[in-house]
Amino acid sequence: MGQKSANDDAQNQSYPRLEQRIADTYAAQSSAALKNSLYDSYIKAFRWASDRLDKQHGGIIAFVSNGYWLDGNAMDGFRKSLEAEFSAIYVFNLRGNCRTSGEVRRKESGNVFGLGSRTPIAITVLVKKPGHTGKALIQYHDIGDYLSREEKLAIIAEKRSILNPAMNWTHIRPNAQGDWLNQRNDIFGSFIPLGDKKNKENKQTFFNPFYSNGLATSRDAWCYSFSQTKLHQNIQATIAYYNSMVESGDEKPLLDPARISWSAAFQSAFQKKIKKNFSEKAIRKALYRPFNKESVYFNESLNERVGLMPKLFPTPETKNFIICLPGIGERKGFCTLISSQIFDLNAFDGGIQCFPLYYYEKNEPKGKAVEQGSLIPQKSKPKQLGLPMPKPVTEEYTRKDAITDAALEHFQTHYEDDTIGKEDLFYYVYGILHSPVYRERYAADLKKMLPRVPLAPDFWGFSKAGRELAHWHLDYEQVEPWPVEEERKPQGDMDDFTYYHVEKMRFPKKGERGTIIYNGNITFKGIPLDAYDYVVNGKSALDWIMERYAITIRNDPNDWCREHNDPTYIYNLVKRIIRVSLETNRIVAGLPGID
Which of 42, 271, 514, 595 makes the best surface tag, with the fewest CB within 10 Å? Predict the structure, then answer.
């Protein structure tokens, strides 16, 4: 599918005719925006073999392969093509997907290849019978949940053949979208879409088409750091090294992964001999992972893709709120998190989509900006929870509402309530997306497409809950720490930065999650286990803190404490995230129904 960076210099062999066949069949039938995974080697193998079956006599193809194609979003065209090209299809799903987490990971359990594969595995038998017309008969068998590698291999040996009656095949009837497993709910399609970038003229959406992917740097080790000082040094050294290669006149850059991370955009700039300059204003704050804030160099010259983030956060002073969602095809469970900072693309599985409260347009030179909101008067005053509201716009940019006038009118008409404002709608969305009923009922839809918004019976119940959730998730660094028990060693003559220094937090032993050993001086005890129930992108918020605030080869979270002159930042962050998690659980448990 690709390489980690151009430094690898390990592009796949190109097969022009085979890739054209995939483009004409699997890709042509797919509705996915990103179709790179259709050119993975194992999919090429299916196409190559299918094209070599004798057209007159038919035949059989059998593969043991990555099983991601069974439910992958970009694989809809692949599944549709198999259904059209063959007369019968048998799939024995052996599961074992190691790229999941939590309960889903436990259900996937052992992989039949042990540590030899991290992907789900499937045995596929494709039958092409001469004279067959119509679509294929699709027979499917799932090996089951919680099975070890050895148990799975024993089941395979026992089943032995697709003709064994004990296989207990399930007949699959694909829907119009090409779903075989986890088919979409028809009701979901009647809800209001969050956005539509394919048809930017579509006004019947919740948000204008200015929502954005997260920031993709392709060189995180250079562009992110807990230390703003080290970030300055890294970026300036990278720019100096790159510019020296441009000045050298060489046709091909030196691929030194210790000094620079190459990517397509960098190579293109190099070929055009474009030099790069350092910008002080590009030093920003960003959420690198959930509840993990770092300094970032936010600039198109060193970032691979910035998306529309410059329209959402055009200057360091710009205030905005964004509701962030996992990309289509996520495998760790649907989630959402609000932010007032730039969000990294890889903070969630499958990438990030960020839906803003506002977007900003640059003014003509010397033109004075006028704050522009909805054409429909805003009667609500949503400040009851004390959320920080965006400051007035500068002369350089005009602030505009990201939520459409059509959405506001639709909601005001449906609920017969003209006091509903666009900020109320924004927090309504955040409340709805936290609903356990919504997430469970439409789980299949949320994996394959952007969320859609239902008209719930209690609008204000969701809007107020969404606003309160936003308070806890935005202000997590300021909330009152949760009062856990502590075991401390005497501080003696150690200064505060040494005493609170973190290397890697850990549990005393597996399964004992009520205690966290913060460092050699401090141990937290009596942590409410319910705090681990608040999960974002497959991990609890507390697990994210323990994972991210640990010293790595490239990054030291203690630098953040020093540069912000707060030795207790991480120490208090653990206790604050406990409170945020428990408050989130409380609000989510009290959400109204959606029927």
Answer: 595
Can you give 357-413 as a three-state secondary structure string? CEEEEECCCCCCCCCCCCCCCCCCCCCCCCCCCCCCCCCCEEEEECECHHHHHHHHH
SS in 3 state form for 297-315? ECCCCCCCECCCHHHHCCC
Summarised one tens digit per residue, pLDDT across range 532-541 is 999 999 899 9
Tokens encoding 532:
């681990």
In Å, what is the CA distance from 302 to each residue of 220, 267, 285? 10, 12, 16
φ, ψ dihedrals at 63, nearest 5°: -135, 145
Given a contact cutoff of 8 angstroms between Cβ atoms, the answer to whether 541 and 352 are in contact is: no
Q: What is the pTM of this model?
A: 0.84
**Chain-wide mean pLDDT for the chain?**
89
Token code pair at residue 439: 């997430």
Q: Measure the CA–CA gap between 349 and 330, rounded to whole angstroms.
A: 5
79-119 tens-digit pLDDT: 999 999 999 999 999 999 887 777 778 888 899 999 888 89
Contact 396, 362 (CB under 8 A): yes
| Angle in degrees, CA 544, 341, 210, rounded to 5 | 120
